[in-house]
TrEMBL record:
Keyword annotations of the record: Acyltransferase, Transferase, Tricarboxylic acid cycle
Record protein name field: Citrate synthase
PROSITE patterns: CITRATE_SYNTHASE
Family that this chain belongs to: Belongs to the citrate synthase family.
Length: 372
């Protein structure tokens, strides 16, 4: 019997130059995430992931121009949002549909040369934030807000979502969150994107498949579940009993554990500090205290540490963002990684087609239906 790597653990499925984890530190094209989080704009990180180098001033200016010009959506998308609202679909379900629908409005949808694919990555990155913001506004009966020129990508999303230009502090915090979530080697959604386009299918197919994979609670969907858990717990005093009960039931505690990081997720420290600050500023200190108590219990009981999804939940909540938008926001950031990996897959492609160890029945013969 062949050795089966359940969940593909430890399997090196392909090569990549985009990101990796070295000594528990996440790096994008050789830059440590700490360096980028403290210094960069998310727009620079997008460029870095796509080009494997940082942009110069002119290149960044050009990228900003393009992002802004592509942010406006075809109004036919809006009627879609009304349907999502009527059908009460989860925003991740809506986003998955919309990412596929974006292809209808791409004049070069069936052109696949490198230059057009690169342009398409910018186009999709620009539109994904407008999609999430517009869907939220439509379902809340508010008018859709067009992007504002000269706002950063982070500020423009918050502006389109809430109708007010965010404060500098909020913009900086959100920019950091976008950088921290941008890429992560062969995580499940990125790998899904690469598998989809390894058939030489188009970029819209890749990102739609990736969004479907991100939605699951074992991956990007965990951030919304974290907030659900914190809301259910309600007070610090309830925390121990709640978590211990869940662990006795062998339930997974959302926001903890990781396939690769066994000594802690290097992104979590930034989100923890942001969570501490913002919950304090918005008078929601207890949410942070509950989070810290859960982290203590999980470390003591299971030796597990928070991952990127744990503290991001309280950060987004304290920014007044609806809980079911947390995973779509993750998708806005991860779009940069998905599209970078899709471009890399095209450059180095071989169709992804592993084998399976067959454990089913053998040597059966067809029986006529009346004999079964
Ligand atoms: C952006 C991201 O995708 S980050 C991850 C977001 N997902 C979550 O936060 C969901 C909760 N976490 C998990 O489900 C897992 O830790 C994953 C999916 C992240 C990683 O899964 P795997 O690498 O397959 O780890 P696996 O599930 O085998 O866990 C190993 C052991 O730790 C336990 N464990 C892992 N995570 C948790 C958790 N969050 N709560 C309780 N126990 C856990 C498992 O039950 C298992 O115990 P066992 O050996 O007694 O059966
Ligand atoms: O890498 C993973 O398995 C999950 C993760 O942390 C991410 O996608 O950011």
């Amino acid at each position: 019997m062949a050795q089966v790597a359940k969940g593909l653990e430890g399997i090196i499925a392909s090569e990549t130059e985009i990101s990796t984890i070295i000594d528990n530190q996440l790096t994008y094209a050789g830059y440590e995430i700490d360096d980028l989080t403290e210094n960069a704009l998310f727009e620079e990180v997008m460029f870095l992931l796509w080009n494997l180098r940082l942009p110069n001033e002119k290149e960044l200016e050009d990228l900003n121009e393009k992002l802004f010009s592509y942010m406006t959506l075809n109004p036919r998308m809006y009627s879609h949002f009304e349907d999502y609202a009527t059908d009460k679909v989860h925003p991740m379900t809506g986003l998955r549909t919309s990412l596929s629908y974006l292809a209808h409005f791409d004049p070069d949808a069936e052109v696949f040369d490198e230059e057009t694919n690169y342009e398409r990555a910018i186009r999709i990155q620009a539109k994904v934030s407008s999609l999430v913001a517009a869907f939220s506004r439509v379902r809340n009966g508010k008018e859709v807000i067009k992007p504002k020129k000269d706002l950063s990508y982070a500020a423009n999303f918050l502006y389109m979502l809430r109708g007010e230009v965010p404060s500098k502090v909020e913009e900086e915090g959100f920019n950091k969150a976008l950088i921290l979530h941008a890429d992560h080697e062969f995580n499940a959604s990125t790998f899904t994107a690469r598998v989809a386009v390894s058939t030489l299918s188009d970029m819209y197919s890749g990102v739609t498949a990736a969004a479907g994979a991100l939605k699951g609670p074992l991956h990007g969907g965990a951030n919304e579940q974290v907030m659900k858990m914190l809301t259910e717990i309600g007070t610090v005093d309830n925390t121990d009993a709640f978590i211990k009960q869940k662990l006795e039931e062998k339930a997974k505690i959302m926001g903890f554990g990781h396939r690769v990081y066994k000594n802690g997720d290097p992104r979590a420290k930034y989100l923890k500090e942001m969570s501490r600050r913002i919950t304090d500023e918005t008078g929601q200190k207890e949410l942070f205290e509950i989070s810290c108590r859960i982290a203590e219990i999980m470390k003591e009981e299971k030796g597990l540490l928070p991952n990127v999804d744990f503290y991001s939940a309280t950060v987004y909540h304290s920014m007044g963002i609806e809980h079911d938008l947390f995973t779509p926001i993750f998708a806005i950031s991860r779009m940069s990684g998905w599209t970078a990996h899709i471009l890399e897959q095209y450059r180095t492609n071989r169709i992804m087609r592993p084998r399976a160890e067959y454990t089913g029945e053998r040597d059966r013969k067809y029986e006529p239906i009346e004999k079964r």
